[in-house]
Every structure is written in structure tokens, then in C-alpha cells.
Amino acid sequence: MKSLAVKATAVLLATGIGAGAAWSAESLQDVMKRRGLSQQDLMAAAKTYTPTGKRDEFLAFSSGGQSGQILVYGIPSMRILKYIGVFTPEPWQGYGYDEESKAVLRQGWIDGKEITWGDTHHPAISETQGQYDGQFLFINDKANPRLAVVDLRDFETKQIVVNPIYKSEHGGAFVTPDTDYVIEAAQYATPLENQKFYPLEEFNEKYRGGVTYWKFDRKAGRLDPSKSFSLELPPYSQDLSDAGKGPSDGWSFTNSFCSERYVGGIEKGRPPYEAGCSAKDTDYLHVVNWKKAAELVAQGKAKKINGHDVLMMETAVKEGILFLIPEPKSPHGVDVTPDGKFIIVAGKLDTHVSVYSFDKIQAAIKAGKFESKDPYGIPVIGMKDALHTQVPLGLGPLHTQFDAKQCVAYTSLYVDSQVAKWDFCEGKVLDKISVHYNIGHLMTMEGDSVDPKGRYLVALNKLSIDRFNPVGPLHPQNHQLIDISNDKMQLLYDMPLPLGEPHYVVAIEASKLKPGVRYKVGTNSRTDEPHPGKVRAGEERIERDGNKVTVYGTLIRSHITPETIEVEVGDEVTINLTNLERAQDETHGFAVSTYNVHASIEPGKSVSVKFKADKEGVYPYYCTEFCSALHLEMQGYLLVKPKGWKATTKEIAKAAYTESDYQTTLKKVVDTQAVIDSVVAFITSTNYKDFPDVVNMVEDATDQLGKAADAKSRHEAAAAKQDWEQANLWAEQVWQYQVKAADIGIRAKTYLEQNGAKKIQ
Ligand code: RUQ
Ligand code: CUA
């Protein structure tokens, strides 16, 4: 070891590289000195560094803010694993460039208009009995009131729904403990009827807020608009929401700001919104019995607005399912404790967090003890009758998350740029840590479920100012990882995120996720149904019906079938493609020059791309993923011919191959077969059948080799006729099949060696 290091140093010095710094001989102390690292830094590094091949304990799903996407990263390594296209196109995954995903994005068009961005805020993982179950993910779009469903079996967006009565929303997505409903609350009040104008002078009478309960059909994996409903609410700028759990299951809680119902108009000399909307010392927490609301809707007590069931305030008040409680002051987050007993409201413009007791709220409701009614007749429960305690935490408290330890909560302090650790049972502060800078949300592991896992906290900071190398006036966002396993919090890591303001993040134990590695052959991944354009090997074809040309093609290393598509100018072309691979991670891409279509086709998936061949010419198409050594050769031509073009009698030019070329190729085939035989001997000498991944690879390899027989008879027939061009090329094709089989076989062999396969003979 030492002599190697010495040698390496000698080489470096001799070549003049790194003169003066003997890199390879550095000790840990040397590195600490050179990089200016403290013992504390080393500790942080040891807690986050994840060596090659090792995986993370938790996966985080982060809102991608204005990108309309979701980011997936690992904790504690903070390595980004995926961007999921949700409300906006994502080219790598073909999202928005193939027909199946376009159909999902089209669900999110509003009033017939395509919306090409989203303001994603709050992701939520589906729950079973209040525990994250790792099956589905929901996220909202504030600007264009929409909600999306992502299936965590393949991390793909399956559905987008548009809220039928709002023009913006913020308080979503929050799930009820069994994911019966996904909650989405409005933000800026507007008339609920679509495309209806009322002047601002009629704000109090005609403008409304609300909260929507989207019914989730878990079996279908989709939201069911026909069974979803909303509750009409006053124009109080509803903000965040949370669902009750345990004793408070069946209830939901929604904050508000600007319950002043102030209408600005600075250009007309009126004081601005910010002054008028924060003038009062309190706003209202909305307390809703959603279980009872659902029953009332089922009994036909809702009114249809824009074809959607809306339970009007009048009905809600009469039926006793809607209450208000004052809360200080322009509050932001509302978070139900894991035991479901308390509701924590963070003050934003007030230094306190207010801890409301669900028991006390229920007692007041039972006793009919209300301090007043709001202008819409909604009973108001006195603050002191509902409060458990109030704790002064600091400036700008926004959001709260929970620890695995009883009664321990963490609240973000936006103005102070700190995280406060505190006890919500006793009402006392335990610790504080500074973050950089202006923290918005914060997130602990499964920290909004009934069973938080503790361990780590991520601070989602709005500003990063000087934390990273400057990249122009627009700075990255900063997710800071904090160790919360001890009494004192320790800052571990800064992760810059180069995507629009990431609002909220949720993190789940990685072991709870069970994503697939391939689809059943011929699956439309966006509907989970068999794809009408799917074909198996040997069934590829091109059909014409009038000016409609439909291609039924396949992809497998390293060719696209068909390799030529001939159409006429003006034809409407649909290309269906099925990836026939079984091996893990053998994705092929598909693109046609200048027609703006792209697809990512994972093993088993079928997709289609569609375009009008409106330009005469020659357009290469090819695979866009580096899928094998012959990836670049995974190509073909779309020939767009002028109308009435007569086929040429000329043949494609031949290459001058000789008999000796043919013999050389045959020798290559024999040598390669020897390699394959030795790999096969190794694999079959082990218990490889215990490794499903290897079984799949072996099947793929056998498939490839199986095709060689046909190529072999072709080269032998050509050789008999002394057609050395055909003989040599078909022999080459035999070799291509062998190379692919050997490639997969070697992957399988490596996999077995690395995963402890046992010899069985
Ligand atoms: S919000 S920084 Cu959109 Cu969740 Cu609070
Ligand atoms: Cu398939 Cu590259």
C-alpha cells in the first residue's frame, strides 16, 4: 500500500502535476488542514457521506415550485434521484412529448387552454391509518387550482384534476388518515361560478373561499371528481390545512389570513392589501366536520356549482359542521399533532405558536358555548375556550413538524432564520438553531404522520444569499439537513436546489417504497391498461388507412423495428412502440428529427408519438438512450415523399465483401460463442434462479441468441450462392445477437458475484 502511494507520488512529481502537494500520501489530518475542516465538519461528513453502492434511509419528495415538477432525493446523502414531470413537460421522460403523457397534461388544461407551468406547493404521501404507506403521492398547483396524482409504483403522474370552483388554491394537498379524501383549500376569494364577473364592491356578498374534499379511489389509483365535494367558506383567504387524526379523525382544520376581507387599490389612493389584510389582531381557524359534510352531500343537501357538489355555508351552519376560532395574527401553518389531540397554529406576524386542544373545541361545541357569530352566521368559539397553551418562539413562526419523541415539535422561524425545538405538551422551548436564510417549511422524517421517525430535519430556506458560489442574481434555493437525534440540533449539510421555490417536502422510509423495474409487456403506463398499439416481436407492421399511417413497432437492443417508414406529405403518422426488454434499466428513447416528438420507453412499456408529416424530406429517427454498445446504430429513416412519387428501380448500393471477409466473421462468431459458453457455465453453476433480476437477464439473453438461428440459415444460404455481401452481413448479424447476449450474460454474472450467489455444483 505504502509503496504504491510513494510510486504514485513519484509519478506525479516527475510529471510536474501537483508539485509540492503529495496528494496520494495525504493523511486525514492533512486533508482537514488543507480544506480547513473542523472535527465537527468531519462528524457531519460521516453522518451524510454515502459510499458508492450504499443507499439512503429516507426518500424525500420535494415540490419543484414553479417548475411544476417534483424532485426526489435521498436522506441523509441529499443526492437527487429523479425529477417527476407533473404539471409541466419533462423531456427526458417524454412527458408531454408522447401521446399518453400528453393526455395526462391535457386533463390539466383550464377553459380549453393549455397551461404550461405550475406553482406546486405541498406534496402528500398516501396514508393507511395515519401512517405513510408509500403507494401514492399528491401535489397541488396554487396558481391554476389543480391537484395531481403520482403512482409510486413507477413514479409517474397518472392524473390531474382542475378545481371546478376556485381560481387559486394553497391549502392542499393534505390527506385524511386513510386517504379517503385529499384536502384542497382555496386561497384568494373569487366568485365560485366559472367566468362570472362581480365588481370588487360586492366582495363580501359575492366572493367566496372554500375547501374541497377530493374522493380518492385507491383501487383505481385516481381521484373521483363525481364523488368529491366542496364546502363554501367566507372570503377569508383560506391558507394551509390539515386533517385530524386519531381522536380528531373526521375533522379538518384550515387557516386564514385577511379575514378583514380588505380590498386594496393603491392606484386609487386606498392603503395597500398588506396594510388592510393584517390590521386585525386575529384571523380565523376554520374547523370542519368533513365526515358529516360527506354524509350531507350524499343526502343531496349540496348545491351544484359548475357541475360540482358544494355544501353552502348556510347548510353547514344549520347542520352544525362548521366553526371558527380566532387565531393570531395572519397565521400560516396549521399542523395536527401525531396523537391527534392538538392543533398547532403558527403566528407568522405573532411570535407565538398557539396550541389548540381538540377536546376543548369539542366541549365548547357540545355545550353550545360560542362567543359570537361572524358576518356569515358561523359560530365563533372563544380563543381561551379552545387553547391548550401558547408558546413564544420567536419572529415569524410558519410551520411545525414532529419528532418520534413524545411532545417534541420543530417550528420554522422565518424572520429569525431559525428552527425552534419545543415541547407542545409543557409549552416550553428546548433548543434553537440558525439556518441560512429565511426558512419557510421544515420537514422531519414522516413528521406529519401519526408515527414520526425523528432522526433528520430539513430546513427549506427561501434565500441562500452567500452560501454557494455565485451564479448570477438568481440564487439557488437551500435545503439544509439537520441532525435531530440528540438534544442539541446539528447542522449537517447544505444542498442547493436549482429549481423554483420548493415549498414543502415529505420524506418516507425508503424500505416502504416498492417501485417496479419493468411493466407487463405492452402497458400504457399512464392508464395502467394494455396499450392498443402494442405488438410482440415478429408482429411489427405499418398500416395505412386513407392518409393515416399507423406504425406498430418494437425496440430491443440494438434495433428499432421497422427501420424505414415511408409516408407521403400530408399523412398523419402515429408510431406505436413497445420495449421488449426484460432486463432492468434497459430503457430506449425514441426521437424523430424536427417533428418535436420524444418518448422514453422503459422495459415493457408501450407509447405512441403522433405528428403530421407536413414537410417533404428525409428524417432520421433514433434511440436517445445509450442502451448498448450498438446504441448509435439504433436508427432508421422516416421518408416523407412528395405526393405521387414513383418508386425507383435502382437498388441500394452493395459493399464489396469477399469470401475471406465472410470466413473472418465466422471465426469471430466461433470465438464469441466460447465467451458465451463460459458465462453460461458460470451462471448455471449457481443458484441464479433465486435472483429474479438474473432470471430476467437470462431470458433476454436467450431471446437474443434465439434470433441467431434465422440469421445463420440466411448467411449459409447466401454463402451457398456465393453472395458474399449477404453472407458476410448475415454472419455479422449472428455476431450482433451474440454480442448482446454476452453483454447481458456478463451483467448477470457480475450481479451474481456481487450479490453472494452460491455454487450449486
Ligand atoms: S406555504 S412557507 Cu405554500 Cu406551504 Cu408556507
Ligand atoms: Cu436503444 Cu439506444
TrEMBL record:
CDD domains noted in UniProt: N2OR_C
N-terminal signal peptide: 1-21
Keyword S-adenosyl-L-methionine recorded: no
Domain Cytochrome oxidase subunit II copper A binding: 546-654
Keyword Endoplasmic reticulum: no
GO CC annotations on file: membrane; periplasmic space
Pfam families assigned: Cupredoxin_1 (PF13473), nos_propeller (PF18764)
Record-listed E.C. numbers: 1.7.2.4
Keywords carried by this UniProt record: Copper, Metal-binding, Oxidoreductase, Periplasm, Signal
Protein name per Swiss-Prot or TrEMBL: Sec-dependent nitrous-oxide reductase
Gene: nosZ
